[in-house]
Amino acid sequence: MTRTPTFLLFFAVLFAVLGGMHYYLWARLVRDTGLPGRRALLVVFALAAVAVPLGMALARRLSFRATRGSLTVLFTWLGAAFLLFVALVATDLARLLWSGLRGLAAASGPELAPTDPGRRLFVARTLAGGAVLAAGAAAAGAVRSATGEPRVVELAVPLERLPRALSGFTLAQISDLHVGPTIREKHVKRVVDMTNALRPDAVVITGDLVDGSVAELRAATEHLARLRARHGVYFVTGNHEYYSGARAWLAELRRYGVTPLENARLTLGDRGPGGASFDLAGVNDWSAAPGYDGRWPALEQALEDRDPERALVLLAHQPRGVAEAAAAGVGLQLSGHTHGGQLFPWNLVVAAVYPFYKGLYRLERDGKATQIYVSCGTGYWGPPMRLGAPAEVTKLVLTT
């Protein structure tokens, strides 16, 4: 599918979903509670539904400087509206359960008196007010979580065939930073400083670094040139790089001293003859295709002529192909993409789609084992909110 039809389909689905969600909000908050000005408020909710996709479309035509403030407001409303939608659905489910229990009681006992209309209105207003308060509190906490300093997640990971001399080798993982309209220079500088403070042996960036062109984002991303690691900084593409001009970004990252791994492999450690070392490989994202300025992921190409007795770490943006990685001798795969669900209860959907969606997993298949660590991400996408999946910079300590 070419780029234009893909985006048209995306926006069509987005309009439909947001339209349905905002109509439901209007029905529960305005119609059912008897608020005055129902028609005027219906127009307001309709405008709110179309504002986000229209704002995203305009941002593709105008500069980030011109749209940054409006997009921040629109995306914040989108997150708050989603949380309010969830809260109201929860109240509807509770009311449905209560109605069912009343029905059972009526079937097994004396007939219950019908609910008084005044009481019904009182209940609707009380539940709507409670939902607004709960969603507002959750949204405020989610904004603080997303826009504040990411947490540092540190864990030791045993790596098969790692030379004993390299036990304790540290990798700092940055993933899904999503530098763009609402994540700018301040957050990038903070992440770079946090990562350098970990004093890693190598830094790996597992995709979805940017949401915009080099010209729009260079002032923010050029701080990546300050990343320091004794054995270098490495990058693999995520799906969002292919929406933002992957070729140009790969060239820009090389200018910063970052090494892209495009279905490629290199040696980390002592590269001299007989030195203690292991292999680091990286594959392009599954979204890569000629129409998106890239090449498909090719693990076979990345591992061509590799010594199978050497330890191997794989960088792959999406937590897919883990069984194939195990069969190929990968001891550890580092991924991102899922954001850990980012905003509860969306994490339940993400967990249903991705068997490996957050944290460290071990997989054994046909006598071969591998591990995969899936980062919750270092930034956010869309609403500047995180609930139940805090942003992270990950420090992985490789052990024998």
TrEMBL record:
One GO biological-process annotation of the entry reads:
lipid A biosynthetic process
- Record's GO cellular component, any one? membrane
Q: Where are the transmembrane segments?
A: 7-27, 39-59, 71-90
Q: Which cofactor does it need?
A: a divalent metal cation
Q: Which UniProt keywords apply?
A: Hydrolase, Membrane, Metal-binding, Transmembrane, Transmembrane helix
GO MF annotations, alphabetized: metal ion binding; UDP-2,3-diacylglucosamine hydrolase activity
The name this protein goes by in its record: Metallophosphatase
Q: What is the source species? A: Anaeromyxobacter diazotrophicus
